[in-house]
Amino acid sequence: NDIRGEEMKQAMAAGKDVRPLDIVRKEHDDVQYRITKLNGEIEDARQAAEDEHREIDKVQSLVRDKTMEVEKLRLKMQRRTELREQYDTKVADYRQMQEDIKASTAEIPRLERDYEKLVEERNQKQTVRAQREAEMQMLINNIIKI
After folding, report:
1. What is the pTM of this model?
2. Is residue 18 within 8 Å of residue 11, measured between CB atoms?
3. Cα-trace Rg, the chain
4. Please, which pLDDT band fits residue 22 given cuts at 50, 70 and 90?
5. Cα separation of 128 and 130, whole Å?
């Protein structure tokens, strides 16, 4: 027993573990259990992270799809706005043409009166010319008789 006690003192002095084997085995088993448990937790965390990444990828894909839809709708709205502006311009042009037609139509009676005056003046001038020609012819005939 003394020899055994001496060996233990030397082993302790050398920094060696001198605890009974069953205690060491128990601690070893406890450490192994904790390692196994932690490895399981690590695997669960890794799996959860992969699931999260898949979910993030799905969401990003949805965001891309929705962004494309929004862009298409924005382009449609822009085109609709352009068409609306063209329509408004054409309606304004049409209304202006209607106003111009109305103004021109209001001018017709005055133009007809002016035309009638011009025709009357022409007729008077033709009558005067015919009278002068007749007078000239009479003068010429009178001169020839003399």
Report:
1. 0.45
2. yes
3. 59
4. confident
5. 5
